[in-house]
Design goal:
The chain is α+β, with helices and mostly antiparallel strands and about 625 residues long. It contains 15 helices and 30 strands. Helix content is about 30%, strand content about 30%. Strand 4 and strand 5 form a beta hairpin. Bound molecules: guanosine-5'-diphosphate.
Length: about 625
């Protein structure tokens, strides 16, 4: 009997680029490229992939098949095509080619939107706090500030908007979604430390976004501060300081001692004037979502940055796949507003759902259109996520530890990953940074991406797909940890993206540093919080596992996400100080600088033990 094999030259394929939606099925794909569903299924079967005609295909499968028949395709997210229609319904004009910056140069002058970036510990948070406090009159009602993701400050009659999440994670997450929310980047470089890896990353991000950089050389109060060295390091990276005849503005500051802050603000105003930032302050408001979360009392809350027009209470808005009528607008002082114009960040109540940082928002003609657009988007987003999750690697993958040996055999290695993070923004930043690693010898394949703690399900999936689990600000719970040990699944947790990238690069060249296996030594559940005069907050706990020892390293977890890291300062049993408390007993754990624990949180103590590499 003759075995029917697929012959690619069966029929000509349509000419030109064919647009194919992710997660399409053989039934839909076939006819688009002049083939039948059976052709697709048969071909994939020959490649060792068993799929049915109505099953969603991974990107790899679609590409493999279309390459085989010589069709030129462009993969789009489901809904991308529909998005054009939705925009029309909302009354948004598509941006024309000669209007690249979205018509940035029409309308009245608007405040600049500024993002602070730089290496960890160089003083970004301190600087943001300093600028913010400069304007707050202490003791007044207005002295209460709210962290809503951005704030505005006044200087010499000019208003400036600062994005309140330092670092490039947020910036990258926005850009990854096509949103440009920043006009100027303040690059903070500690004068005693100089340019470091994350400073370099920040420079690349600012350049990629074509955003002007103002350099704040911080910590000049330090004895070992060496601003000259920073200047030469900048010059080496093509950021030639003005004092050296270049055009990079640098300002020496001390966020700690409040030196040079006014000068920095003045320079930011100068740059903003040079950029001639303008936006219409009337008409349909549009902008970008900076942050969004679910508030138990108030429902979905989103901080929106208005970019065009004026947003008013009562407006029907669509933000990503959420919609609603604006119930209230709240500014960074917690005050209610009736409207918000260009460059103004506002917290919005009244949306149907939580949206994603980087989502666009726009005022719709009416509520009916708003809900229709949001529902359609939600449908397509679901489709897209199905496509991504079925996009598990074709063929086997390798774990971080054995990726090097796989490369050495000369095969193209695939590193299968499951990525979990505490919030959507960091998840996107994480995938974005990983995707950029792009090495020829290694392909990264995301088996799954999600927000939340590392669960048993994740471990099961990792075991099944031979993947490494990467946690960003999240940890496995006990069950997940036990299953991982049993199934030999590698879980790596990080709190700094740079460290993760470093590990992966090291793994690729076979130089993964000795692994420190973390051994969890004790686990306690918070039952109650007591305030003790002169001592502060004490968490009344029940030890559920192992032994809690005074002085051990500890982390606090809420729903699997790490909310604090440090050491146990004090440990008590029946009001007596004690050295350790074993499983099955109650104890009081003193909280030093972190006081924000709630009943139900988990306190986990651990030790690092070096594991010899095989
Ligand atoms: P970030 O990680 O970049 O946000 O850095 P932080 O703002 O958290 O600052 C890291 C540490 O440096 C903190 O202990 C700050 O108090 C300290 N710091 C920040 N700015 C200055 C400064 O101008 N001078 C000195 N001496 N210390 C500073």
């Amino acid at each position: 009997m003759e075995v029917a094999t697929y012959t690619p030259e069966d029929a000509p394929v349509p000419e030109g680029v064919i647009v194919i939606e992710r997660a399409t099925t053989p039934q839909e794909l076939g006819p688009k490229v002049s083939r039948t569903a059976a052709d697709v299924v048969r071909f994939l079967m020959q490649q060792g992939e068993m799929v049915t005609a109505t099953q969603s295909l991974s990107d790899d499968m679609i590409e493999l098949f279309t390459a085989e028949i010589g069709a030129e395709i462009r993969l789009v997210d489901p809904g991308e095509e529909q998005e054009v229609e939705l925009k029309k319904m909302l009354g948004i004009e598509p941006i024309s080619d000669d209007d690249e910056l979205g018509g940035a140069d029409i309308g009245p002058i608007r405040p600049p939107v500024i993002t602070v970036m730089g290496h960890v510990d160089h003083g970004k948070t301190k600087l943001l706090d300093r600028i913010r406090r400069a304007n707050v009159v202490e003791g007044e009602a207005g002295g209460i500030t709210q962290h809503i993701g951005a704030y505005q400050t006044e200087h010499n009659g000019h208003t400036l908007t600062f994005i309140d999440t330092p670092g490039h994670e947020a910036f990258t997450a926005m850009r990854a979604r096509g949103a440009q929310a920043t006009d100027i980047v303040v690059l903070v470089v500690a004068a005693d430390d100089g340019i470091m890896p994350q400073t370099e990353e920040a420079i690349s991000h600012a350049r990629a976004a074509d955003v002007p950089i103002v350099v704040a050389i911080n910590k000049i109060d330090r004895e070992n501060a060496d601003p000259q060295r920073v200047l030469s390091q900048l010059a080496e990276r093509n950021l030639v300081p003005e004092s050296w005849g270049g055009d990079t503005i640098t300002v020496e500051i001390s966020a700690l001692e409040n030196l040079g802050i006014d000068d920095l603000l003045e320079q930011l105003i100068v740059v903003s004037e040079l950029e001639d930032l303008r936006a219409p302050d009337d008409g349909q408001a549009q902008g970008v979502v900076l942050e969004s979360h679910l508030d138990i009392g108030r429902g979905p809350v989103a901080t929106l940055l208005v970019q065009d027009g004026t947003l008013c209470v009562g407006d029907p808005v669509v933000a990503g796949a959420a919609w609603g009528r604006v119930r209230a607008l709240i500014d960074d002082h917690g005050e209610s507003l009736t409207e918000a114009g260009p460059s103004r960040p506002v917290q919005v109540l009244g949306l149907s759902d939580v949206c994603d940082a980087g989502d666009e928002f726009v005022v719709a003609p009416n509520e009916k259109v708003a809900s229709r657009v949001a529902d359609t988007r939600e449908h397509w987003q679901r489709q897209a996520s199905i496509g991504r999750e079925t996009s598990s690697a074709l063929g086997g993958g390798a774990r971080l530890e054995d990726i090097f040996s796989q490369i050495q055999t000369g095969e193209a290695a695939t590193l299968n990953l499951i990525a979990k993070a505490d919030v959507n923004g960091s998840l996107e930043a994480l995938t974005d940074s990983l995707n950029k690693l792009g090495r020829d010898e290694v392909k990264l394949a995301f088996v799954h991406r999600g927000v939340g703690g590392i669960s048993e399900n994740d471990v099961q999936l990792a075991a099944a797909s031979n993947a490494t689990i990467i946690g960003f600000n999240v940890r496995p719970d006990r069950k997940a940890r036990e299953l991982a040990e049993q199934e030999h699944v590698e879980i790596r947790s990080y709190e700094i993206i740079y460290n993760l990238i470093e590990d992966i690069e090291a793994a690729i060249v076979g130089m993964l540093a000795p692994e420190f296996e973390e051994v969890v030594t004790g686990e306690a559940e918070v039952r109650e919080i007591f305030r003790v005069p002169r001592v502060g907050a004490i968490a009344g706990c029940y030890v559920t596992n192992g032994v809690i020892t005074r002085g051990s390293k500890v982390r606090f977890l809420r729903d699997g996400a790490v909310i604090w890291n440090g050491e146990i300062a004090s440990l008590r049993r029946f009001k007596e100080d004690t050295r350790e408390v074993a499983s099955g007993f109650e104890c009081g754990i003193g909280l030093s600088d972190f006081q924000d624990l709630k009943p139900g949180d988990i306190i986990e103590t651990y030790e690092d033990r070096e594991v010899p590499r095989s």
